[in-house]
Each structure stands twice: as structure tokens, then as C-alpha cells.
Write a structure and sequence with these properties.
single chain, alpha+beta, seven-stranded mixed sheet, six-stranded antiparallel sheet, 13 strands
Length: 542
């Protein structure tokens, strides 16, 4: 007796997996919340005893020893951690009550402070200790708590943002968002963009050019995305726009998944000049005409300069209708000449390292060195960004959909030779027959996340002149979606491998599209010719 799996089984399995993941997450949050309440109660007890009985350092150290003796398998009972618990209780006096009750608070209560005390319950203890050490103002602490929860920052990432003074930098850049954007988008944009960007994860000399700055940013793309903030997806560098026979290039092109807008960034190695605004205005107009789909909002421009005179910036932006922000960047500079002389030269360091390596070289080290050199010599396009919804959304609406239309127009050349034809797209258990159905599907994020294949089919039924030797024809083009690249497969009995692959920062060129169309038409015409020859030979035999 054969074992058959229901067609609904994959969906049921996925639902159960998601249920388990959610339950595990809720359990983790609940355990963390209970642990923080216990820590607060310990800290509150220490605080009260310090006031009433004059507890000092020795008593806290004894308490740590006694608690550890009773609970030897429990971490976090050191004297230092007990003092953190005391500070936690002092910082959030209503914490325990707020976690147990949602009763109405008095109108006189400090609402931001109440929100802070509720929010810290969602952070791990290590994050809370860092906030107690490094951030003293409640409103500033609430800012970092909320950003950490929104972006899923690790403790190190949160420390980096605190040290870069994100609280004071965010929302204060020179811009015209309030007049150029709808109210909701303007407030969100103001909060997303910073007055200055800390790009001190690399060094540049005083003689560096804008292309050097751009290249350095691409080398450290992960750190750049972290500094830009949540929601930025890199779409490319030196994006070319063509208009009236002229070419224009934008330094960096991003897509913001929350704003649903393209973000154009221009890098300037010097101080801000008013003419930068008019140039950005041109780029934004070109981006809206050539990149924006019907589901996107108009693009936003960000001009990054070494220095920014806010008064001049405000005048430059005053009568500009397109949304533009102007910010400074801060980078690490090369060492001054008077310090360089005190340090060994690069050549000296390399010579010493080579000497030490040769003395220690083993077969494994020699092989490692050879492989590293081979890796260095590989001349291929580097992966810049993995797949995400914004990229797939733009890929379909700006590239693939128009490709389908050209392919269909080409295939209709054979419609008159067959009794009927049909067009179909499919993925998983879904089928589509119209562009409207396609648009609805690709516009919803949950439909696209996890998608691996999307197949286009064009079928011809009943070749009219075949007589009793009638035959059908079909072509299938599969869009395959990998974590780091997308590709196209021309499905037939002998081949399931992509004949064209692209990284996600690479758009489909006209040459790529022509290659796809030529491959489809070649396969179809080869098959039709072979069958016509077969029919002809059959009739001649009679």
C-alpha cells in the first residue's frame, strides 16, 4: 500500500512550524520578564535596607555569597550584579507594579517614564546594565530602548549607536521634508535620517576624492547599512540615467522598505554648496520617471558633505519641491606627518611579518597562503546584498514584468498557425492568467518572502496544417530566486540550469533581455522545424 501525502500537508507543516517558533519566542520573553522582576525585587530590597539599616558593600558581598550557596546553578548573583539590580530598582521604581498590572495610572504620572519602565522588560539583562551605565536621561534611554527593540540590536550594536550619539544626531538634519512630503511620511523621514553620519570605520587622506569615499563605503557596506539605519536596501552604485542623449550617474542608490521610496545619496568630499541641491533635484526627477513603479512613492535625496552650513542649506532648500536632506559625515583621517615619523613604515611592518611567517611556516600555513592568494586573484563581481522583499518587488515591476510583455508579443507571431494558445504563470500551488493577478500577488510581501521559483508558460494547441500528425508546442521560462542571485531557466527535458544569472545589485540590461528572448525563440523554432520536417517526411513516404 503506497503512502500518499495530502496536497495541504506543506501548508499545514509551515503553520505548525510558525506556531512553535511563536511559542518559543513568547516563552523566552516571559522568562526574561520574570527574571527582571526577580532582579528588581532583589535590588529594591537592597535599596530599602540601605536606607533603613545602612547596608554597605560588605553586606551586599555577604548577600551574594549566601544566595549563590543556596542557588549554585544560578548565574548573575555576583556582588557587582547585585549592585546593578539596586541601580535597576532605583532607576525604575514602578517596574514591578507595571509588569503585573495594566490598571489606569493617574494623569499626573510621567507617561514617557511609564513607557520606559514597561519597555525595558523586553530587553535582556545585559542590555539593561549597559543602559544604566551609559545613558542617564530617561527620555534618551527610552529612545535607545525603542530603537533596540525595533531593529533587533545586539548589545555591541546598541553600544556603538550610543557612542556615536545617535539620539542627538537623528531627526535634526537640514531638510525640506515637511513641505515636500505628506505629513506622515515627513515625520517618518525626519526620524529616519540623521544630521551627521559616522563613517569612521575607514580612513581617508586629505587628498581623497569622492570616488575614494564611495569605494571605501562599498568595501564596508555592512557597517554603512548599520549606520544608515533600519530599512535601507542597497540597489547599486553609480546608477546611470539617460535623457536626451546625456548620461547622469548617482553615487549610491538605496530603497527604503518602510517609506517605499528610492533613496538617492550623493557624496561630496568638501563643504556644502547650494548648486548640489539643483543637481539632486534633477536626479530625483529622473529616478521618479525611470525607477518608480506604481506601488512606490517619489524618491528622496540625501546629500552627504564633509561640512554643512545649516543657514545656507535652509535657503537652498526653501523653494525646492522635491524632498532633499543635507547631512555631514565624519570619517577617520590618516595620521598627521609629525606622528608618522614616530611609527614604523608599512614596508618595515611587512618585512618583519614576512620574516616571522617564514620562520613559522608549515605546510598548512603555506597552503593557506596559496589559497588566500587565489581568492584575492579571482576577478568576479562581488556579492553586495542578499535577497529581500524590496529588491524582488522592484525586480518584478521594473524589469521582469516588461520582459514578459516583450516575450508574449514575440510569441504571438505563431498564434495564427495554431487553433488556440494560452498564457499562464505559476508558483507553488498558485496560478495566474492576467497581469492584474500578477500585480496583486507581487505587491504583497508575505507572498514573495521565501519564493524560490516563478514559472511563465506559453502554450500553442493544435498545429493547423499538421492534419492527422497534429502537435502542440509550449515554452516555459523559470525565474529562479536564490539567496544571493537570481537567474532564468529555459525549461526543457534536458536542462534545468539557469542560462543567465545576476546578482541582486545588477539590473537586467537590454542585452540580457535580448538573450532571454533569443533563447526562447530558438528553442521554439527548433522544435517547430523538427516537427514540420517529420510531417513532410511522413507525407512523402505515402
Amino acid at each position: 500500500m503506497s503512502f500518499e501525502i495530502s496536497k495541504d500537508y506543506p501548508a499545514i507543516l509551515n503553520n505548525l512550524k510558525e506556531t512553535i517558533r511563536q511559542a518559543r519566542m513568547q516563552a523566552t520573553i516571559a522568562v526574561n520578564n520574570i527574571l527582571l522582576i526577580v532582579y528588581w525585587q532583589i535590588g529594591n530590597t537592597i535599596t530599602n535596607q540601605e536606607k533603613a539599616e545602612g547596608w554597605g558593600t560588605k553586606t551586599v558581598e555577604k548577600l551574594a555569597i549566601d544566595l549563590k550557596a543556596e542557588f549554585p546553578d544560578m548565574n548573575g548573583l555576583s556582588p557587582r550584579n547585585l549592585r546593578y539590580m539596586r541601580d535597576f530598582a532605583l532607576a525604575y521604581p514602578q517596574f514591578s507594579i507595571l509588569q503585573r498590572s495594566v490598571a489606569k495610572l493617574k494623569e499626573a504620572d510621567n507617561q514617557p517614564f511609564i513607557i520606559l519602565q514597561r519597555s525595558v522588560a523586553k530587553l535582556p539583562w545585559g542590555h539593561n546594565c549597559t543602559l544604566l551605565d551609559r545613558v542617564k536621561l530617561p527620555e534618551e534611554r527610552l529612545f535607545y530602548v525603542q530603537k533596540t527593540l525595533q531593529n533587533g540590536w545586539t548589545r555591541d550594536m546598541m553600544i556603538n549607536q550610543i557612542e556615536s550619539n545617535l539620539y542627538k544626531r537623528l531627526g535634526s538634519l537640514s531638510n525640506n521634508f515637511k513641505t515636500a512630503l505628506p505629513a506622515y511620511d515627513s515625520e517618518l523621514a525626519i526620524q529616519l535620517f540623521k544630521d551627521s553620519y559616522h563613517l569612521d570605520f575607514f580612513m581617508l587622506s586629505e587628498e581623497a576624492k569622492e570616488k575614494d569615499l564611495e569605494s571605501a563605503l562599498m568595501t564596508h557596506i555592512t557597517k554603512l547599512l548599520l549606520e544608515l539605519g533600519d530599512g535601507f536596501a542597497l540597489m547599486g552604485r553609480q546608477k546611470k540615467f539617460e535623457v536626451s542623449g546625456k548620461e547622469f550617474f548617482i553615487d549610491l542608490l538605496f530603497y527604503h522598505t518602510k517609506l517605499r521610496r528610492h533613496i538617492l545619496i550623493e557624496l561630496k568630499i568638501g563643504e556644502f554648496e547650494p548648486e548640489f541641491v539643483s543637481k539632486m533635484n534633477l536626479y530625483l526627477g529622473l529616478a521618479d520617471d525611470q525607477l518608480k513603479s506604481e506601488y512606490d512613492q517619489p524618491a528622496i535625496g540625501l546629500i552627504l558633505c564633509k561640512t554643512n552650513n545649516k543657514i545656507i542649506a535652509e535657503y537652498a532648500l526653501r523653494d525646492t519641491s522635491k524632498p532633499i536632506g543635507i547631512a555631514e559625515y565624519k570619517i577617520a583621517q590618516m595620521l598627521p606627518d609629525d606622528i608618522k615619523g614616530e611609527l614604523p613604515s608599512i614596508e618595515d611592518i611587512e618585512e618583519r611579518m614576512d620574516k616571522e611567517l617564514k620562520e613559522q611556516e608549515t605546510p598548512i600555513n603555506a597552503r593557506l597562503k596559496a589559497i588566500k592568494q587565489k581568492l584575492k586573484n579571482i576577478q568576479t563581481e562581488e556579492i553586495q546584498i542578499p535577497v529581500n522583499y524590496a529588491i524582488l518587488h522592484n525586480l518584478f515591476f521594473n524589469e521582469v514584468k516588461s520582459l514578459y510583455k516583450v516575450i508574449i508579443k514575440k510569441l504571438t507571431e505563431f498564434n495564427e498557425d495554431f487553433l488556440s494558445h494560452s498564457i499562464n504563470w505559476q508558483c507553488s500551488n498558485k496560478n495566474f492568467n492576467t497581469y492584474e493577478q500578477l500585480d496583486e500577488f507581487w505587491a504583497v510581501e508575505k507572498n514573495i518572502i521565501g519564493l524560490r521559483d516563478f514559472i511563465f508558460s506559453y502554450s500553442f494547441d493544435g498545429f493547423k496544417k499538421a492534419g492527422t500528425e497534429h502537435f502542440n508546442e509550449w515554452v516555459q521560462l523559470k525565474l529562479t530566486i536564490d539567496t544571493y542571485y537570481y537567474g532564468f531557466v529555459l525549461i526543457n527535458h534536458n536542462n534545468q540550469q539557469p542560462f543567465l544569472k545576476k546578482l541582486y545589485h545588477q539590473t537586467l540590461t537590454e542585452s540580457d533581455k535580448q538573450q532571454i528572448i533569443n533563447s526562447i525563440m530558438t528553442q521554439l523554432m527548433d522544435s517547430i522545424e523538427w516537427k514540420i520536417e517529420k510531417i513532410t517526411n511522413s507525407k512523402e513516404a505515402l
